[in-house]
Amino acid sequence: MVGRSEGFLLEPLWEAAAEPGPSRRGGRLPDALAARFAGELAFELRADRPMVVANFVSSIDGVVALGPDEKSTGGGEISGFSEADRFMMALLRCLADVVIVGAGTVRVGRNHEWTARNLRPDLAPVFAEWRRELGLAPQPTTVVVTASGDVDLRHGGLSAPDVPVFVVTTHAGARRLNSVKLPANLEVVVNSNGDDVKPGELLDAVGMNTRARVALCEGGPHLLGALMGARLVDELFLTVAPQVVGRPDGAGRLGLVEGSNLIAAGGSWARLAAIRRAGDDLFLRYRFGE
Ligand SMILES: NC(=O)c1ccc[n+]([C@@H]2O[C@H](COP(=O)([O-])OP(=O)(O)OC[C@H]3O[C@@H](n4cnc5c(N)ncnc54)[C@H](OP(=O)(O)O)[C@@H]3O)[C@@H](O)[C@H]2O)c1
Fold it and tell me: Which ligand 1 atom is nearest residue 147's CA?
């Protein structure tokens, strides 16, 4: 399928001045990628835990996903299958040790594999070489979070032998998952004493099991909301797709929450770090906690 913004440059419009810290991942991109994305893409690593980078696409009116009963739902529908957005996602996956998704996102993406090569198979050798130069594993580990354990272990995106998968879950979830034979590339990790996995427990499990320094969260809204609420997101890459979904009931709109107590508690303010555009798509980079 030819997506919107096919082949467009991710043109840099503005970037905040930043002093490179002592421990950094990334930098200037390999030539084959720099032709689309000029300048640097780098993360300042943390000593205390994996840094968490989130990537999300929203319509202009704040819709990030359609309802579970829709025939087809997800970031693709929101971005209009923007090829430039897929390219940006691939770059972020290149720099990540792990890609974290909630089980809800896995349940709608029947064959999606959370690797850069899945988004741009033609660039797979370039991605592989860049990861090798950066000293990273050939593919990022996929981390799936589930309380219920209701994850189809035959899912096409969880079954590539060269992509390790950790399913982080509760005791009840593990009982369900362990009731069938696990694929060789997949491990079930319990790090919860309750009905869900607290965001801190999730990051502890990721850190202990993968030694990740960069964890890329690809949502969906429940998981991202939990990590944001716990103030564990360090950076957000937000694509604004030039679409108004305009659902009259307001369902699914980002920010439509009973939130006055959250705002009274200080909300979670970010600093704008960079702006790029590809045609009518806007790529915003935010930093939290500075
Ligand atoms: N616009 C975008 O950029 C974007 C990005 C990602 C996804 N999406 C879309 O978002 C939709 C799915 O939304 P969603 O909010 O349901 O996705 P989600 O957050 O990926 O999945 C929610 C599920 O993940 C598990 N989960 C999340 N947080 C958990 C925690 N703290 N502890 C234990 N389990 C946890 C639970 O699974 P169990 O029910 O198994 O317990 C929960 O039902 C899909 O349509 C997807 O395509 C959009």
Answer: 41
